[in-house]
Amino acid sequence: MRITQPFDFAQGRELVERQMCVFRQTRKPAMDALRLDNIAIVLVEPQIPENIGAAARAMNNMGLEQLMLVKPRNCDLSRLLKMATGSSIDIIEEMEVYDNLQESIGPFEYVVGTTARTGALRPALTGPRRLAEDLSAISRNNRIAILFGPEDRGLSNEHLRYCHTIATIPTARFSSLNLAHSVMIICYEIFMAGKAPPKESLPRLANKFELEGMYDHLKDVLQKIGFINPQNPEHWLLNIRRFLSRLPLRAREVRVVRGVCRQIDWYTEQLEKMKKEKQLEE
Of 17, 52, 125, 251, which residue has the fewest beta carbons closer than 10 angstroms? Predict the structure, then answer.
């Protein structure tokens, strides 16, 4: 198990090794229409070990292998492995654990958020089937992270602001689904989309490290020129994030935006110098 921060799994280690010897199987190669090996399931602050294990099993059923946890509240392996049976053990062995969401999704070029709660600040932009179809073209040249929130409250607005798109699973009445069930539905649609004829692939997009650097730069310069309210800049920046998320920005396009920001920085600095010089003359 690759762990990015210290995390004590010592008690369940023997159980992992024993089950791996019995259940390890050869993985199937990724499908041509959709690169499953470029898609990661990210569980943000999961609380129940059995749900983590069941999510790993759902992924294994549908051919996905990359599982990431962000700030798990409880990762008791003995409880987790009650649900992550068979060759799902491989996924648990290779899963990564992070303390910070931004760090976990930084290398990814496309990030999807899932939510049952919608509203003005979190519109449902897509559903599982359409999402899977869109990912078919994106996945061949880009790494994709699909975020699922904690069982009791789901992803927060803070989590969702890092996402390119937000997906909601439609239900008849009660909208809240079990975490592992949600993972299964999304993974199933992705698996089925992989059986369709390949679509034209998208080129490599800017990753989240590059995009967040651009958004931070934009926030600074837009405050300098009075375009956004400095009292709550993230709220005012949200519409800009949504607008730019509709455009599959490449790394060089992010550099162009940052070049414009640097020019604005330079211009505002020149204006400040001129003001100071005028004040000294007076």
Answer: 17
Q: What is the CATH number of domain 208-281?
A: 1.10.8
Domain 2-193 architecture: 3-Layer(aba) Sandwich (3.40)
Query: What single-letter amino acid sits at 95?
Result: M
Report how far residue 61's alpha carbon sits from residue 51's, in angstroms, rounded to the nearest whole number. Answer: 15
| Element containing residue 251 per DSSP (H, E) | helix 251-281
User: Model's pTM, two decimal places?
Assistant: 0.75
Helices 179-193 & 49-61 angle (0-180, nearest 10): 10
pLDDT tens for residues 32-84? Answer: 578 999 999 999 999 999 999 999 999 999 999 999 999 999 989 889 998 99
Contact 153, 160 (CB under 8 A): no
Q: Specify the DSSP class assigned to residue 206.
A: P
Q: Where are the domains of the chain?
A: 2-193, 208-281
